[in-house]
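hi! just following up on the protien thing from before. the input was this:
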Amino acid sequence: MKKGLLIVFVLAISSIFCSAEPVMAESPYEGSYKGTFSGNFDGQWTCIVGSNGQINDWTISLAPGAKGKGEIDKDGNLIVKLNPGGMETVWTAKVTKDLKVTNGKLNLGGTFKGQGTREQAAAKSEPAIKVILLGTGIPVPNPQRACASTLVVAGDKTFLIDTGRGFLNNLFKAGARGASAVLFTHFHSDHFGEFGELMVIRGITGADNPLKVIGPKGTGKVVNGILDAYSLDFAYRKAHHKDKWPDASFKVDVQEVDTGVVYDKDGIKIRMFKVDHSPIEPAVGYRIDYKGRSVVVSGDTRKIPEMIDMAKGCDILVHEALNSQLVKMGEARVKNSPRLLGMNQEMAEYHATTLEVAEIARDAGVGKLVLTHLVPSIPPNDQMEKTFIKGMSDIYKGTIFVGRDGMIIETGPAK
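and the predicted 3d structure came back as:
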C-alpha cells in the first residue's frame, strides 16, 4: 500500500456514489477496523472491509443499529451508504502504511476528529462471479481502450463475450490465456476483430480441444471466414512446430442460437436474448447465473423493455452507454462535413444514452451498473468520467462504474 492513501467515507441515505475507478480484485484494506472520535461529544465506530473492498458492516454509536454497505477502489476511496433510518454523515481519514487510521474528521453536525486501527484480517469470501473489462472502447482508435470485450468468470469457467481489437493484451494482463467459450453479441468488426489472434494464442498455449463459440445467426459464417483467412498461418506454424502445435487448437465448435438457454452445466446457466441495434440484425445480450448471483451483458442496443426484464434483480449489469451531450459537442466539430455529421447522427440512433441506461438499472433493480463501449471514447480520467455520467445518479441510486480496460467488478459470494 502506498503511504498516505486517502480513504473517504460517505454515508447518506438520499445520495449515491458513482465510482470512476477500478475496483481491486483483492483489497489491501481487507479486515475489521474500530476506532473512536471526539468533538462535541465522544463516540465509537466499527468497520468491516471484506473481499474486493466491499464493506460488509459499518456502525457508529451515535446511530444505534445503523449499518451500511459500500466499496473501496484501488486508490483507497471508500464509500459507504447507510440503510434507511441511519444518520447522514461524512468521514474522511488517512490510512498509514501500517493500516492505522489517523487524522480523521467525522462530520455529524459538529466538528469531530477520530482515529482507529485494523483489528484483524477479514476472512476470505470468494465472489461467485467476477467481471473483467477487456475492452471498453469503440471502433475509433483510442490507445487507452481496446474494442469491445468482457470476460465473465464463474467458478472455474471463463466466458469471453466479444473479441474486439486489442482485447488480447488485456486478457493476458488479467492472467488469462483463453476461455471456456466465446460468446458473440453481433458482428460489427469492433466486436470480433481479434478472434483470429485468439486462435493463434490457443496454438501457442497448446489448447487440445475445440473452442466453443456461441452466437446468433451468422456466427458460423464469420468464424469460418476468419479461420479461412488464418489457414496459411496455421499451416506454416504446424509445419514448423509439428506435433508441438495441436491440431485441435485451430478447431471450433460453433453453436448458432436464436434466443434462450445457450449454456447449462456445472451450475452455470447462460441465456441469450435479443436486443435492438437495428439496422444491425441479429444482435443479442447475455445473462449469466451462477450460485444465486447474476451478471447481464447488454451488447450494443437501444433502450428496450427486454433489457429491464432480463436484468431484473441482477448483481451486475454491464451496459453500453452513449453520452448525448458529448456526442453533440463532437457534431459541432464536424458541422462543415455533411458526411461526417450524418454518420455521427446515425451512430447515435442505435445506442442507449447514459440517462436511459440509468433508467434501465433503476427499473431492473440491479446491484451495480457498469458502463462500457463508451461513446464517445473518453480518456480514462476522473474528470471526464464524472462528465460522462452526469445526471445518472439522479435516476439510479446504486453504484455506477465507468468502465476502464482492466477493471474488475465482483458479485457477492455464492448464496
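The first strand starts at residue 5 and ends at 11.
The CA atoms of residues 125 and 275 lie 34 Å apart.
cheers
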